[in-house]
Amino acid sequence: MTEWNILTQAHTALRQAVAGVPDNGWQLPTPCSDWNVTQVLQHAAGDQLGYASFLTGGPRPDEDPFAPSGTLSASVADTLEPALAAAEQAWSDVAENAVDVPVPLPPFKLPAPVAVGACALDAAVHAWDIAMATGRPSPLTADLARDLLPVAHQIVEGPRAYGMYAAALDAEANDDAVATLLRYLGRNPTWTPTP
């Protein structure tokens, strides 16, 4: 079994962010301008299942992660945890030196460290989205952001052409590692909910 620290850190960030959502916070707006907190959770869980499915041939998400309904068909825990567990199990069977690992985004096959990094990037950035929406501290650490940035540079431009990522924002002089990653992904690191 392969241990992927980058994925463990990203999943921890997502779990922390979701655990911090107050009961009345599920309809709050997020940095993903078209989605509320519930929809970001559905998208993040669906993407983790998507990666697992590409690796194992197992079940795909019940609904399109890019068109989340905003209505959970199960509890929050039952939405998130099976998806994370499926991804963790699937990646544990991927060797570190694997070359053509299937992923659900262009170019659809990547070297293992980049492929698992793509899965981790998705979880970590949506953890940040949820935390920001609910006024919580960022669960995206500087170390994790530094590890994810090279992955982002390798995978984002293709999907960006299909609208899967927003246009990159200009860097600013005082950007730290987290802000640098977020701006590259088209997110404003100082985003706050509109009062």
From TrEMBL:
<dbReference type="GO" id="GO:0046872">
    <property type="term" value="F:metal ion binding"/>
</dbReference>
<dbReference type="InterPro" id="IPR017517">
    <property type="entry name" value="Maleyloyr_isom"/>
</dbReference>
<feature type="domain" description="Mycothiol-dependent maleylpyruvate isomerase metal-binding">
    <location>
        <begin position="7"/>
        <end position="131"/>
    </location>
</feature>
<dbReference type="InterPro" id="IPR017520">
    <property type="entry name" value="CHP03086"/>
</dbReference>
<protein>
    <submittedName>
        <fullName>Uncharacterized protein (TIGR03086 family)</fullName>
    </submittedName>
</protein>
<dbReference type="InterPro" id="IPR024344">
    <property type="entry name" value="MDMPI_metal-binding"/>
</dbReference>
<dbReference type="Pfam" id="PF11716">
    <property type="entry name" value="MDMPI_N"/>
</dbReference>
<dbReference type="InterPro" id="IPR034660">
    <property type="entry name" value="DinB/YfiT-like"/>
</dbReference>
